[in-house]
C-alpha cells in the first residue's frame, strides 16, 4: 500500500464508529497492528524537525522515573526508526545505559501526518490543567506514605506552595458550622443529672459517674431528664 497517498478512512470517524459498534478491539481501530516491539537504542533516529527541547535536568528526571516505575511509555517511531514522539525517553535510556527500549511503530501515518503529530503530541498535553485540590490531596498522601514525591516531577518548593494554597482554600471555604462559637455570658443550660443524646451516644453531666449512670447508658429510656 502507498501510505503517502492512501486516502482510506481507516482512522476516520466512520471506521472508528463501525469498529466500536462491531466490538473491535482498540489496537486495530486505526487499521494497524499496534504491537510494541523492543528496539536497540542505537537504531533510533532523532527527528530533525522536533521542536520540543529537553534540559539535562529533565532528562535526569525522566531517567529517574524510568528507574523507579519502569519504561512504561514506549517511544513512537516510523518505519525508518525515526522518533516521532519520545525523544526525552530515548535520551534518558542512553543516560541509563540501556541497550534496548520498547517502541511502537506508527506505520499508518503519512509524512505530513507525522510532522503534525510531532507537534500535536506535545502541544495537546500542555493544554491539560490540574485540579489543585485533588493534586494536593494526592501529593500529601504520597508524603504520608514516605514516598519520594519528587518522582512525580514536582519539586519540593512547588509541592509546599500547592499544599499551603490548598490549606488556605479550605480555611476560606469553611462554613459557619465549622466555626466554634464563643461562650455566652448567660446562665448555664446544663444541670447536674442531665443526659445529652448525641445521635447513638449519650453524655451524662455528673461530678462523679455512678453505677446508676452506667445503667442509663445501656437503656433506651431512663428516669433521668434527657436534654435534646
Short summary:
It is elongated, with a radius of gyration of 32 Å. The protein is of the alpha/beta class and about 230 residues long.
Description:
- The protein has seven helices and seven strands; from the N terminus they run αβαββαβαααββαβ.
- The chain is an alpha/beta fold and 228 residues long.
- The protein folds into four domains: 32 residues, no CATH class; 92 residues, Alpha-Beta Complex (Conserved hypothetical protein from pyrococcus furiosus pfu- 392566-001, ParB domain); 44 residues, no CATH class; 33 residues, no CATH class.
- Helix 5 packs across helix 6.
- It is elongated, with a radius of gyration of 32 Å.
- It starts with 12 loop residues before the first helix and ends with a strand.
- The N terminus is likely disordered.
CATH architecture of the largest domain: Alpha-Beta Complex
| Number of structural units classed as domains | 4
Q: Biggest β-sheet, characterized?
A: 4 strands, mixed
Query: Which fold name is given in CATH as the topology of the largest domain?
Result: Conserved hypothetical protein from pyrococcus furiosus pfu- 392566-001, ParB domain
Proportion of strand residues: 5-15%
Going by CATH, what is the homologous superfamily of the largest domain?
Conserved hypothetical protein from pyrococcus furiosus pfu- 392566-001, ParB domain
At the first level of CATH, the class of the largest domain is Alpha Beta
Q: Helix-strand pattern, N to C?
A: HEHEEHEHHHEEHE
Count all strands and give the number.
Answer: 7
Tally the helices: what do you get?
Answer: 7
Amino acid at each position: 500500500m502507498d501510505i503517502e497517498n492512501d486516502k482510506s478512512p481507516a482512522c476516520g470517524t466512520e471506521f472508528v464508529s463501525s469498529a466500536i459498534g462491531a466490538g473491535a478491539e482498540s489496537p486495530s481501530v486505526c487499521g494497524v497492528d499496534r504491537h510494541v516491539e523492543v528496539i536497540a537504542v542505537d537504531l533510533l533516529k532523532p527527528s530533525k524537525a522536533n521542536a520540543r527541547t529537553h534540559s539535562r535536568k529533565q532528562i535526569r528526571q525522566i531517567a529517574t522515573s524510568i528507574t523507579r516505575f519502569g519504561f512504561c511509555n514506549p517511544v513512537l517511531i516510523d518505519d525508518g526508526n525515526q522518533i516521532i514522539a519520545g525523544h526525552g525517553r530515548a535520551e534518558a535510556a542512553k543516560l541509563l545505559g540501556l541497550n534496548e527500549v520498547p517502541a511502537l511503530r506508527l506505520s499508518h501515518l503519512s509524512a505530513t501526518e507525522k510532522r503534525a503529530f510531532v507537534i500535536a503530541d506535545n502541544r495537546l498535553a500542555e493544554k491539560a490543567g490540574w485540579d489543585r485540590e485533588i493534586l494536593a490531596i494526592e501529593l500529601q498522601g504520597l508524603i504520608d506514605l514516605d514516598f519520594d514525591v519528587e518522582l512525580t516531577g514536582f519539586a519540593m518548593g512547588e509541592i509546599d506552595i500547592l499544599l499551603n494554597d490548598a490549606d488556605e482554600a479550605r480555611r476560606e471555604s469553611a462554613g459557619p458550622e465549622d466555626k466554634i462559637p464563643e461562650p455566652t455570658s448567660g446562665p448555664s443550660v446544663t444541670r447536674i443529672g442531665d443526659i445529652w443524646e448525641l445521635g447513638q451516644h449519650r453524655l451524662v453531666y455528673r461530678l462523679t459517674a455512678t453505677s446508676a449512670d452506667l445503667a442509663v447508658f445501656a437503656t433506651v429510656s431512663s428516669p433521668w431528664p434527657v436534654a435534646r
